[in-house]
């Protein structure tokens, strides 16, 4: 896990479920073959209704139609981010698109756990609702050690909840490395 | 301790656990399917080695069910990956497509094949794995990484959840089903109201339900954000389990002084048929509030709404009627598909009742519940307004982002199929 994550913000609303993060019809691609796995980057967040893609503007896709990578590094969400299915393809798709962190008011627990155990994206909880305070395209920076987010576009600084217990897994890289370091799995 | 806390403590080798504790526990059953099985296998091999063996082949269940009857070559390739892995590991519990063993929807298949036993821990790469909690066991959905860790070690870490208790008192009226009860709860607590917690169901109306209806309750615990749903086992549970397996099990019950996060009590005799309006399972309304809403399609199927009892309920209304909108019937498993030909109502088989009413009957699988490849049976492609017995109605869930899905009980769906508008089952039930 990086100490500083900086890039452009992509803002979405509440209850962004896993079908919006990666629609079920796309779950058929290999997550390992390079020519297929990049499709998860192309279709990441494509299930969000068009009017709500990239708030407050709308009609701003996370990844451009012909691209495999997103220009956005940090996703800002409201409550219950990642609800719905247990598909690990969801945090994987965000990572494959180039997203490094999500900052949401709250998470559905399987998405949160998948993000951490697979080491795909760093899931921070915001202390206040940021969906109305950050705009898609703002230049934002997360200090993962201080658990704070700076919006360089506006100069505002927001506190995040510390990562707590899961920081050790994120620092190790994923749950396997964590289990090896803890002696729960042979090295 | 609650039932959930006790099962976790038993499997962590501890005297007791307290909500919030992080513990490593032993896993009794791991289930995976065609969508999440292949990436789980890839992670397992990456982390444990190309020739590694799974921790216990008798505890791994593979039931392909999501994208089965499709020409999509990526989807078919995923079933091939499962097939190769099952052969390579000589897995006894692989239910292959195109064979007599093929089951269909995994959560119901687990019950039918006797894997759901009181007191055990069961994990699956599917959020609706919480369905199995109806048997008084701890079950929850995990991602591919966690499943691969279990595949290699038989262990996983869990944070002990607090338990929310939901008590249903009274006798269930004939126009209500378990789907109405769980939609009422989700509407009341919101689709994140149970996040990180257990939803435990209790009360005489719950114990009056058979196992199929109890599974409907637990299936949708995840729609309230919960980690697991659970119902204490009783004679109804034991009888179902004994018919399906000879394996021993140890029922677990909560202590009299168990602590709960909260308790909600419902009197079922005063409840009404419920729907979840588009586009969230917590967007609750009574059927009477949305009655008359024009529909394009009705759908009866899935792990939560495609069991024998769901079809018996729909048949009560559809017998001798003709549907006014296209109506899809998808039995969850091949066993249920056979039962449609065997079980009768008023002298007609359920199958004939549906065919005579003008319904289309599909093959056992998840089908259009979660959209899937474009050639999936019953999938939406446009601006369809659908009433469905499935469990989710987020944008695009049944295929098209422009479609609108109402979730309801099989009785409400069947009543609405007959009229073409959302209809209260009390208007047509005699």
What does the main sheet of chain B amount to? 5 strands, parallel
Strand content of chain B: 15-25%
- Alpha-carbon distance between the two ends of chain B: 45 Å
Within the largest sheet of chain A, what's the order of strands?
A: 4-3-2-1-5-6-7
**Strand line-up in the sheet with most strands of chain B:** 17-14-13-18-19
What distinguishing features does this structure have?
A: 187 residues, alpha/beta, Aconitase, domain 4, seven-stranded mixed beta sheet, B: 430 residues, Aconitase, domain 3, five-stranded parallel beta sheet, four-stranded parallel beta sheet, 19 strands
Report on this model:
The complex is a heterodimer of chains A (187) and B (430). With 187 residues, chain A is α/β, with parallel strands linked by helices. Chain A has one domain: Aconitase, domain 4. Chain A has 6 helices and 7 strands; from the N terminus they run E-H-H-E-H-E-H-E-E-E-E-H-H. Chain A has a 7-stranded mixed β-sheet. The radius of gyration of chain A is 16 Å and the shape is globular. Chain B has 430 residues and is an alpha/beta fold. Chain B folds into 2 domains: 3-245 and 261-265, Aconitase, domain 3 (2-Layer Sandwich); 275-427, Aconitase, domain 3 (2-Layer Sandwich), CATH 3.30.499. In chain B, the strands form 6 sheets. Chain B has a 5-stranded parallel β-sheet with strand order 17-14-13-18-19, with helices on one face. Chain B has a 4-stranded parallel β-sheet with strand order 3-2-4-5, covered by helices on one side. In chain B, strands 9-8-7-10 form a 4-stranded parallel β-sheet. In chain B, strand 7 (163-169), helix 6 and strand 8 (198-202) form a beta-alpha-beta unit. In chain B, helix 11 (308-318) packs across helix 13 and helix 11 (308-318) packs parallel to helix 14 (410-419). The longest helix of chain B has 16 residues, at 73-88. Chain B is globular. Chain B starts with a helix and ends in an 11-residue tail after the last helix. The chains are: A alpha/beta (187), B alpha/beta (430). At the A-B interface, helix 4 and helix 6 of A face helix 2, helix 3 and helix 5 of B.
């Amino acid at each position: 896990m990086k100490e500083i994550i900086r890039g452009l913000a992509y803002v979405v609303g509440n209850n962004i479920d896993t079908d919006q993060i990666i629609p079920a019809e796309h779950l058929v691609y290999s997550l390992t073959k390079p020519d297929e796995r990049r499709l998860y980057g192309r279709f990441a967040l494509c299930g969000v209704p068009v009017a709500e893609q990239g708030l407050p503007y709308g009609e701003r896709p996370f990844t451009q139609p012909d691209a495999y990578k997103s220009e956005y590094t940090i996703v800002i969400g409201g409550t219950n981010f990642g609800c719905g299915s247990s598909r690990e393809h969801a945090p994987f798709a965000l990572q494959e698109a180039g997203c490094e962190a999500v900052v949401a008011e709250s998470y559905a627990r399987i998405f949160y756990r998948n993000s951490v155990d697979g080491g795909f994206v760093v899931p921070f909880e915001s202390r206040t609702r940021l969906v109305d305070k950050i705009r898609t395209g703002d230049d934002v920076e997360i200090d993962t050690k201080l658990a704070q987010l700076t919006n360089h576009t506006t100069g505002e600084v927001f506190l995040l909840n510390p990562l707590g217990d899961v920081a050790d897994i994120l620092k190790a890289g994923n749950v396997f490395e964590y289990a090896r370091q803890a002696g729960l799995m042979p090295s | 301790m609650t039932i959930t806390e006790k099962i976790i403590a038993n499997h962590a080798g501890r005297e007791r656990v307290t909500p919030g504790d992080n513990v490593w526990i032993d896993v009794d059953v791991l289930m995976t399917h065609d969508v999440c099985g292949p990436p789980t296998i890839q992670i397992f091999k990456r982390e444990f080695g190309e020739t590694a063996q799974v921790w216990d082949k008798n505890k791994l269940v593979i039931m392909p069910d999501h994208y089965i009857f499709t020409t999509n070559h990526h989807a078919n390739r995923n079933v091939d990956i499962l097939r190769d892995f099952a052969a390579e590991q000589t897995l006894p519990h692989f239910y292959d497509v195109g064979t007599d063993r093929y089951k269909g929807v995994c959560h119901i298949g687990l019950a039918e094949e006797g894997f759901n036993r009181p007191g055990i821990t069961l994990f699956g790469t599917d959020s609706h794995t919480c369905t199995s909690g109806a048997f008084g066991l701890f079950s929850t959905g995990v991602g591919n990484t966690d499943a691969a860790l279990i595949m290699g070690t038989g262990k996983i870490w869990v944070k002990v959840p607090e338990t929310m208790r939901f008590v249903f008192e009274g006798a269930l009226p004939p126009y209500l089903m378990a789907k109405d009860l769980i939609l009422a709860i989700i509407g009341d607590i919101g689709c994140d109201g149970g996040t990180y917690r257990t939803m435990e169901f209790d009360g005489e109306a719950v114990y009056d339900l058979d196992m199929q209806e109890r599974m409907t309750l637990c299936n949708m615990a995840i729609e309230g954000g919960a980690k697991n749903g659970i119902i204490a086992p009783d004679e109804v549970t034991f009888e179902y389990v004994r018919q399906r397996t000879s394996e021993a099990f140890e029922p677990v019950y909560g202590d009299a002084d168990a602590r709960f996060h909260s308790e909600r009590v419902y009197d079922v005799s005063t409840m009404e048929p419920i729907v979840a309006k588009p586009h969230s399972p917590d967007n609750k309304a009574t059927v009477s509030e949305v009655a008359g809403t024009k529909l394009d399609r009705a759908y009866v199927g899935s792990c939560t709404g495609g069991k024998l009892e769901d079809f018996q309920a729909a048949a009560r209304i559809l017998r001798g009627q003709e549907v006014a909108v296209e109506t899809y019937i998808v039995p969850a498993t091949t066993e249920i598909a056979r039962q449609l030909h065997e079980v009768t109502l008023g002298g007609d088989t359920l199958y004939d009742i549906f065919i005579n009413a003008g319904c289309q009957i599909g093959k056992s699988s998840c089908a259009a519940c979660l959209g899937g490849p474009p050639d999936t049976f019953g999938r939406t492609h446009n601006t369809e307004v659908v009433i469905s017995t499935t469990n989710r109605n987020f944008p695009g869930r049944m295929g098209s982002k422009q479609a609108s899905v109402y979730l309801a009980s099989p009785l409400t769906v069947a009543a609405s199929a007959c009229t073409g508008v959302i209809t209260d089952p009390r208007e047509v039930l005699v």
